[in-house]
Amino acid sequence: MCSLVHNHTPSPHTDNPVSDQQNYQHRARKRFGQNFLRDEHIINRIVHAIVPGPNQTLIEIGPGQGALTEPLLDAAGRLTAIEIDRDLAAQLRSRYADKPGFHLIEGDVLDVDFATLAQGQAALRIVGNLPYNISTPLLFRLLQHKEHIHDMVFMLQLEVVQRLAAGPGSDDYGRLSVMMQYHCEVDMPFKVPPHAFVPQPKVDSAIVRLTPHRPSPWPAVDAQALATVVKAAFGQRRKTLRNTLKAVFSAEKMAQLPVDLGLRAENLGVDDYVRLAALVEPDGAVA
Description:
By secondary structure, the chain is of the alpha/beta class. The protein has eleven helices and nine strands. The chain has two domains: 17-212, Vaccinia Virus protein VP39 (Rossmann fold, 3-Layer(aba) Sandwich), CATH 3.40.50; 223-277, Helicase, Ruva Protein, domain 3. Helix content is 33%, strand content 18%. Helix 3 (69-76) links the parallel strand 2 (57-61) and strand 3 (79-83). The radius of gyration is 21 Å and the shape is elongated.
């Protein structure tokens, strides 16, 4: 989790939130994947990429020490932050106690019910910094609530963003690419180098914007059927589809599939997987 902290040098007499944040010394916790962003230019670019505004329902995952929270809350007037680190949560709760538009959820984001957060609100705009160990399960969880989500802007490890945005035929293209691109438009505004953080991570990071398709460019298919086909195809990505898809389709029906079974999983586009998913019945047989 690449948490955010401004790098101002505070005046000894100021009592603004940035000064409070600077004076609070927090040791980055490895188990939470914390790396604190200290580059003002990057912080400003992230805010610019998000374009926060009045009447938006902003959800910030992993606010850390609140450097991104501040401009987002100022622009939108309200924000819900989700923070698992109890010390950082206490700091945020104290700093924004006089901000009626600030709401804090202290706990694991994987336990949060996003449908409940969306009740009676504008479509959610979800932003934040996702630790590597939960990024994939969290992204798949968020896809289950895409009807409640306007867009998502995240800081992720560069390799994860490259997988999200990859096209057929590339080494980065895989299950995550197909599933995310089926549900969302994927855009990478910019990269973030390791030296922008303290402590420095060992890898590059990047900002990614995920915008659920409205309307979808693909024919409607059962999401679970699509997930089943994609998982089977990429489960043994070095094998041909003739071998991998046997786990989904009956052997006698394989010849009916509208793709070249001599290809490998990474050779098919999202549209190909959608066509395959349309042929799946609950029992896995071809319709």
